[in-house]
Amino acid sequence: MSIKIFRESSGKNIRGSKFYLFRHFYLISVVAIAVILGVACLGLRGIFRNFVLFEADRDAIRISRALRDCEVKEFIPTDDSKEQSVSIPAEKIPQLDHELRAFLAPFGIVKIKIFNRNTRIIYSTDPDIIGKLNPDNTELAKALSGKTVSEYETKEHAWDLEGEKHYEVGIVETYVPIYNQAGKTIGCFEIYKDVTEDFHMADNILLRAGGVFFTVVLSVFFVLMFIINRAAETIKSGTAKLILSNKKLEEEIIERKHAEEEKDELQAQLRQTQKMEAVGTLAGGIAHDFNNILAAMIGYAELALQDAPDGSIARSNLEQVLIAGSRAKELVKRILTFSRKTEQQRKPIEIAPIIKEALKMLRSSIPTTVEIRQNIEATCSMILGNPTQIHQILMNLCTNAAHAMGEKGGLVEVGLSDVEIDSPVVTKFGTLQDGSYVKLVVKDTGCGMESKVIERIFEPFFTTKEVDKGTGMGLSVVHGIVEDNGGLITVDSKPGRGTTFNVFFPMIESPRIEEPETSEIVCGRGELILLVDDEKPIVEMMTQMLEVLGYAVLGKTTSIDALETFRAEPGRFDLVITDYAMPGMTGRELVEELMSIRADIPVILCTGFSEDIDSEKAMNMGIKAFVMKPVDKENLAVIIRNILDKKEITV
Questions:
Q1: pLDDT-based confidence at 358, cuts 50/70/90?
Q2: Cα(186)–Cα(193) distance, rounded to whole angstroms?
Q3: Mean pLDDT, residues 185-212
Q4: How many CB atoms lie within 10 A of CB 196?
Q5: Which CATH class is domain 344-508?
Q6: Among 509, 503, 510, 499, residue whose Cα is nearest residue 415
Q7: What confidence tier does 406 reach under pLDDT thresholds 50, 70, 90?
Q8: Looking at residues 127-132, what average pLDDT do you find?
Q9: How does residue 567 score in pLDDT terms, banded at 50, 70 and 90?
Q10: Percent of the chain predicted with pLDDT > 70
Q11: Are 325 and 297 in contact (CB under 8 A)?
Q12: Least confident of 26-30, 299-303, 362-366, 492-496
């Protein structure tokens, strides 16, 4: 059995809206609750009405079954003939009407019709319509096809079984099929039930329940609002304390994080410093050994040069050897400068030749994919500086430029020009005072840098290179050198657009250069010199050199042997020249022993490099001259002659 109910109104699923309760808007909250309760009541009213209609359908079905099985049973054919239909003889209608009215009165039935299979009304509580056909009634057609159909409608008036007239009546019309014993449909019942009172009763119950519910909810609401108000104050106070605690905790976390970052940075700097110290120690050892090699090489070259005829190829070759030796000597100085082992003295220099020489050396140390283009305009400009440091500045800037361009290579432009600053220029890297400057520009076509990298680019140990590919010291050293020279360095860079470094050196006036007086090398007068060095080639070379200069020489390769020789005849020697770093007994210890034997013995102390001795310490020991290897013949001749003649010595 399927039941389809057509209703004038039906309950709808109404989704409750979310209302936010604010502590200071009680009236809005009350209105919101009233609206919600109203919507809920409408929904419940629809549900109750649906329930009433459903019960009316069930009553109609139960009544039709009872009528079929009792009052109208005798009128239902028992065979399966298609021509058979439910039929009520006219003489039976009064008796049937009396029985049906008595049976239906308690159920609130206001009308009943019985149709045969041809849609003809064979019985009705309204006798005026008996015998009429209803061929256009769709609900009737459905019922005659075997379906139970129900619909609801509101009528302006209706009569009950007692003949009383009622107004505004809600009627449920239910069509129930009538079957014979074989299960064939032979007619149907149409039962009218009045549900008006049921609707009114449901509405009254709902109204009363809604009032009680509204009162309870409103009371609960005000209690909750009071509790919420108190809780809000407590929460507000607790939240303020929690925010303050969180802020303090956040500050502590940030401070601790910064402290850990600073600790990590300091540890990294310490490791880097230890590396640099190790490099410095290594550089010192290399400098000592290399200077000894250079001393022999330069010395023998000078000796050979004396015997070479003027204008000969041999003389030209020897002069080139001496030039190369001089460059090697400067290279050792640069190594020592990098390792912070020597102090640099500033003097008036022409910067252009230094830049050109550095670029020549640089060409062999960077990839061939990098093109170096130079534009040297300031050819005669002079600054107060140190050639080695200027060389170091250019080498660091150009090496960084080559790294920035990577394997693909690119262009490095090096420019040198004179600029005039009319008024102080303030930059984020410092202030450039007005005056004349020599401007060094190093520009590359590399990857460029972001602003946050530029802000830290001159910090010690800061690097963007991979591990073991950069120390973070190059630009820091450059910045320090420029500042020491009273200059300024600036950076202009953007990602993907290359980088430009501008270095400003204060320009000075060219000093008056006096033509040096040409004089012959000062020679000796046969004085006896005790020469001590643990390197046999150096002893042999210096012996020949000193003998050429007119001195008698007694060479020794061990400190112990030299001390015994001196102790045997201390008054025999006019001068002692000794190396510092020697096995068994250092030059310093040897000098102390010699002076304990003869206090007035003049001594020249030579060294390739040593951290333990310098010119000041040597002078305090009573040593007459402190000489760094390699020393050329002319300077050595002047120093020896000045000591023996007791003149002022400048090295």
A1: confident
A2: 23
A3: 75
A4: 18
A5: alpha beta
A6: 503
A7: confident
A8: 79
A9: very high
A10: 74
A11: yes
A12: 26-30
* pLDDT at residue 601, rounded to an integer: 93
**Burial of 398 per CB tally in 10 Å (0-12, 13-18, 19+):** buried
Check whether 575 has a pLDDT greater than 50: yes
| pLDDT reported for residue 296 | 77
Q: Where are the beta strands (DSSP E) in 279-364?
A: 347-350
Torsion of the alpha carbons at 74, 75, 77 and 81, rounded to the nearest 10: 170
Quote the tokens at residue 529.
Answer: 């010199």
Cβ neighbours, 10 Å, residue 43: 15
594 in Cβ contact with 563 (< 8 Å): yes
- Tell which residue, 542, 527, 548, 547, has the closest CA to residue 578: 542
In the block, tokens 């009737």 appear at 140
Give the residue among 343, 357, 355 at the shortest CA–CA distance from 505.
Answer: 355
Q: Cβ contacts of residue 212 below 8 Å, gap of 6+?
A: none
Tokens of 196: 């008006």
State how far the Cα of 508 lies from the Cα of 35, in Å rounded to an integer.
92
Residue matched to tokens 């109208």 = 72
CB 335 within 8 A of CB 581: no
Superfamily of chain region 528-644: Response regulator (3.40.50.2300)
Q: In the prediction, which pLDDT does 77 show?
A: 59
Q: Are 472 and 347 in contact (CB under 8 A)?
A: no
Collect contacts of 629-635 with beta carbons under 8 A, ≥24 apart.
Answer: 629/291, 629/292, 629/294, 629/295, 630/291, 630/294, 630/295, 630/297, 630/298, 630/299, 630/325, 630/329, 631/295, 631/606, 632/298, 632/302, 633/299, 633/302, 633/521, 633/545, 633/548, 633/549, 634/521
Q: Are 85 and 186 in contact (CB under 8 A)?
A: yes
* DSSP code of residue 29: H
Give the rounded percent of residues in the chain with a pLDDT score beyond 90: 13
Residue owning tokens 């809206």: 17
Quote the CA–CA distance of 173 and 151 in Å, as a whole number.
5
* Topology of the domain covering 3-10+23-194: Beta-Lactamase (3.30.450)
Specify the 3-state DSSP secondary structure of 123.
Answer: strand
Over 70: is that where the pLDDT of 399 sits? Answer: yes
595 or 53, higher pLDDT: 595
The domains of the chain are located at 3-10+23-194, 344-508, 528-644
Angle, vertex CA 410, rays to CA 407 and CA 411, nearest 5: 145
Return the closest-CA partner of residue 530 out of 583, 594, 625.
594
The structure tokens listed for 480 are 């320090």
Radius of gyration in angstroms for the set of CA atoms belonging to the chain, rounded to a whole number: 60
Averaged pLDDT of the chain: 77
Q: Is 385 helix (H, G, I), strand (E, B) or coil?
A: strand
The pLDDT of residue 574 is above 90: yes
Element (H, E) at 382: strand 382-385
- Say whether pTM exceeds 0.85: no
Give 3-state DSSP helix, strand, coil % of the chain, rounded to 5: 50, 20, 30
Cα(436)–Cα(84) distance, rounded to whole angstroms?
A: 132
Bridge partners of 427?
Answer: 430
Please state, in angstroms and rounded to a whole number, the distance separating the CA atoms of residues 356 and 363.
11
Least confident window among 12-16, 215-219, 453-457, 462-466: 12-16
